[in-house]
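Fill in residues.
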């Protein structure tokens, strides 16, 4: 088990995704409910402020990416994916956390308190009743404004690296939405970096061959 972690810095979604998938594919063998997995621990990914989120890799599932983006932005619960980050952000605790984060930054642009919690023991019962089937993998989001830029920080307790491009694109779109909401309130700032930390990154066996192909293209295998 690798406790030392890895930092991946990139200028595009495709670049970061390929390097991330390659790193996890070359990790250690593990198991998830009896399914073989490759896994790595303590991965940090940083997208620069100018990172390109529009490029597409031929092996990316774009329909699934759209689902993942909607999972972050929409409060509708996706029955197929079994969850909704948008619901958790805006409905679970009786407060719209996105709105609260915007209000906090309007009141104090240098605040370190514009945070969003997606994982709470008391919230799980309500989420199950609402139709969600699994615990949130995305657990925390924080927004910071520094040097005229809105920076996003997100934490995952667990993440399937193969589908991660949808998670990253969704967080990027949420960051853009917050920029728009801030501008509507008179606070205009530029897009800053997006930093994502994953405690347990993994790949499932059905994706091993595709991940190996990505690794070879990236010159890792």
């Amino acid at each position: 088990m690798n406790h030392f972690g890895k930092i991946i810095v990139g200028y595009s979604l495709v670049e970061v995704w390929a390097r991330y998938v390659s790193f996890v594919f070359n990790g250690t063998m593990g198991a998830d409910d009896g399914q073989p997995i490759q896994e790595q621990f303590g991965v940090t990914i940083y997208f620069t402020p100018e990172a390109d989120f529009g490029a597409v890799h031929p092996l990316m599932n774009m329909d699934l990416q759209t689902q993942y983006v909607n999972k972050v932005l929409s409060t509708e619960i996706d029955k197929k994916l079994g969850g909704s980050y948008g619901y958790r952000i805006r409905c679970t605790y009786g407060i719209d956390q996105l709105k609260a984060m915007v209000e906090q930054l309007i009141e104090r642009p240098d605040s370190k308190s514009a945070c969003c919690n997606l994982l709470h023991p008391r919230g799980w019962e309500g989420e199950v009743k609402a139709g969600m089937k699994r615990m949130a993998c995305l657990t925390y989001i924080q927004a910071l404004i520094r040097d005229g830029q809105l920076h996003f920080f997100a934490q995952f307790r667990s993440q399937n690296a193969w589908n991660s491009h949808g998670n990253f694109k969704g967080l990027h779109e949420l960051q853009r939405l917050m920029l728009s909401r801030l501008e509507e309130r008179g606070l205009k700032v530029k897009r800053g970096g997006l930093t994502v930390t994953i405690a347990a990154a993994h790949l499932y066996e059905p994706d091993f061959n595709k991940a190996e192909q990505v690794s070879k293209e990236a010159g890792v295998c």
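The helical segments are 13-25, 62-73, 85-90, 97-107, 123-130, 164-184, 208-217.
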